[in-house]
Amino acid sequence: MAMRSMSISQIRSEFDEFLYAPIEEGSDGMLLSVLSALARLNIDPWQEAGNLTRMSRECATQRLASLISALPGGALAHLNARTVAARLITLLPHRPSVNIAPREMLLGAGALNNSRVFMYILIINATLLALTFGSQYFKANHQPPLHASFSKAS
Predict the structure, then answer these.
(1) SS3 call for 4
(2) Which residue has the higher pLDDT, 144 or 131?
(3) Average of pLDDT values for 97-126?
(4) In this predicted structure, what is the pLDDT of residue 123?
């Protein structure tokens, strides 16, 4: 049975319209695409596009607007990043059945889980410490006294 392989470009083609869309035309006539902007921020463009696709439109727009605002050089400072992001997000494939929370919300949930884990560990350690000291106290107070027998050597 022959196995058919897919190239990376075939796999990632669902994001092409979004990634190659222009954010802004520079003063030199060069277009700044979403792909270029994400690469300038050292973010994998296809991974970010996938992450944005799984978010709600509102969260994805907010995330993309913050990335556009974070571009180095301030060349896009005159743009309304939220308006540009909203336009660009419409170019992503829509997956209504899958929805993930933005990273900030996930970190908050993780912090809650981490605090519970920390509390359980603290309780277990306190219990073990109490048992250790209690057993040492019990041993020290409930041992028969040592009787020294002295014999006189004649």
Answers:
(1) coil
(2) 131
(3) 59
(4) 78
Rounded Cα gap, residues 97 and 99, in angstroms: 7
What is 7-67 written as a DSSP string? -HHHHHGGGHHHHTSEEEE-TTS-EEEHHHHHHHTT--HHHHHHHHHHB-HHHHHHHHHHH
pLDDT of 43 reads: 93
Place of tokens 């996938």: 50
Report the C-alpha gap between 102 and 81 in whole angstroms: 18
> Where exactly are the structural domains of the chain?
12-89, 102-141
Chain centroid to CA 63: how far? 13
Question: In angstroms, rounded to a whole number, what is the distance separating the alpha carbons of residues 110 and 65?
Answer: 25
* SS3 call for 100: strand
Closest CA to 76 of 141, 146, 84: 84
pLDDT single digits (tens) 16-51 = 999 999 987 666 667 889 999 999 999 999 999 999
